[in-house]
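Subject: Sanity check before I submit

Could someone independently write out the structure tokens for this chain? I want to compare against mine line by line before I put it in a report. The sequence has 213 residues.
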Amino acid sequence: MPTNLREALVEEIKDIYNAEKQIVKALPKMVKGATSDELREAFESHLDETENQVTRLERVFELLDEKPRGKHCAGMAGILEEGSDTLQEDAEDSVMDAMLIAGAQRVEHYEITAYGTCIAWAEALGLTEVAEVLGESLAEEKAADEKLSALAESGINDAATAGESEDEMEEDEEAGSRSTEGPPQTGVSARSASGNRPANGSKNPTRQRGGRR
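---
Independent answer below. Compare away.
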């Protein structure tokens, strides 16, 4: 366990290093799962950035005089597992893209928080160059998050909502057609109910006790 802030910084860098490597493996699946060309291109672009971020972290390890070594990032593993589950869903194209954006932004927000913490600690320790190198990655993560928001708001969310609205309209139409149908027929005819004819359909009136037919 870390006993001082510098050791805590190193542990956090190891965590981010492992997280970035997990993302490098996950992004190709997200590229394949995206149906929007713009979203696919955004994922491909961020894959290149993430690979550079891994290299950048190795530079940070050098500045800290530490060996590049990751520590399993359970937080990122959980987020990426949720993203993997999303890819298994049987959803409309626009809905799938909307869900992929949501998952990708969870990843970005985790990274933004982690990088921001490391930068603050590095600055507090007087590790200016470390803070600057990490700052480059933080800027990329924020830009990626903004790009995903822009894609969602520029049409993907609307497309997903439009499909849902069409389903609701169909349901309303079905409900309306059912409401115009008459009440269900009863098992007794109007004549039977009035007493003019027996309900059992017999043509002869019931024999009265002690009387004539």
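---
OP: Matches mine. For the report I'm noting this point. The longest helix spans residues 128-179.
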